[in-house]
Amino acid sequence: MTDDHAVIALCSVGNLGKYFCDELLADGRYPFVVISRQSNKGPFFEERGIDVRSSDYSTASILQILNETNASTLISFNNSLDQTFVTLHGAFLDACRQSKNCKRFIPSEFAGNIDDFPLLPSFFTTSRVPFRTMLEQEHDIEWTITNNGWFMDYFLTQDKTYMPAIPDEFPIDPNNWKACIRGTGDQLQSFTSARDVAKALLALLGAPQWERTTYITGQWATFNEMTKIMEDFYGREMTKTYRSKAEIDRDAALPPTAENEQARYLASVEEMMITGSGACPREKTLRQQGKFFGHLRFSTLEDLLLQTGSTRGQAKDQG
């Protein structure tokens, strides 16, 4: 059962979480509190008058805040790696179990098709995968894992999104007008704007019952197709380089040493691109679109470019 006046607790609000805060404020139905390790609010939260509570992310600390605010749902945006992710989310889940009222939980995931590719990206095998196993044994707390493919915001210049630029990781770099295509670039992917993910999370708050995995997609396309959309919109060809499947496989197989850590991490992300595991399962995604998000229209890349004030034929000058 849902309650339009229920308090929502948000953990580790970073870039995606800021969009969700904006959507909660614009909607106005749900009071919410942000739980943070930072003792100071920061300008984003100060300017919006958002209630921020400091926590060390232990079960006891989270539990105290959940009970003090009478929160009914906890949503995590924490993107930690390895065992840190498992430990933190285990504490969040345990706090929900012990709380008076917080019996719904959305952990941080926001990646690709985990129904068909549960072990990709491979760096999730020491973080998300073991925590999913914990969730599958949970019967007292209702939960859903939400995935959206690739964040469409990475096609935007840095001045138009809360999401940070990741030019080494994401194939298209709009700030420097270049692209590094992985594999053939012809594997189908899912792309969704961060604001649409936030709108979907808001819609899920009002859903009477969740499914174990929830998928959102604004546009299905390949990286080659999305690059062409960018070039056509701005009227300017991108500088392109390529990384082959063999190069990606080589780096994925490197020994797990400190000096190989970054190369192995990047290869694990690239595996999503060349396997197509970054594409949300179409049939399930479309069914859930009707079930949970029928009132929403998710943006295509061209929509997002126009919504954020981009002008056709005017790519950011790289002087």
In short:
It is built from eleven helices and 14 strands. The chain is an alpha/beta fold. The strands form four sheets. The chain has a six-stranded parallel β-sheet with strand order 3-2-1-4-5-6, with helices on both faces. Strands 8-11-13 form a three-stranded mixed β-sheet.
Tally of strands = 14
* Straight-line distance between termini: 56 Å
Biggest pleated-sheet summary: 6 strands, parallel
The 3D shape can be described as globular
Strand content: 15-25%
Indicate the percent of residues in helices. 25-40%
Q: What Rg do the Cα atoms give?
A: 20 Å
Strand order in space, largest sheet = 3-2-1-4-5-6
Total helices: the number is 11
Mean of pLDDT: 96
Uncertain regions: pLDDT < 50 for 5+ in a row? none
How does the helix and strand content classify structurally? alpha/beta
N-to-C SSE string, H for helix and E for strand: EHEHEHEHEHEEEEEEHEEHEHHHH
Please give a structural write-up.
The protein has eleven helices and 14 strands. It is of the alpha/beta class. The strands form four sheets. Strands 3-2-1-4-5-6 form a six-stranded parallel sheet, with helices on both faces. Strands 8-11-13 form a three-stranded mixed sheet. Helix 4 packs parallel to helix 5 (128-136) and helix 8 crosses helix 9. It is globular. The mean pLDDT is 96.
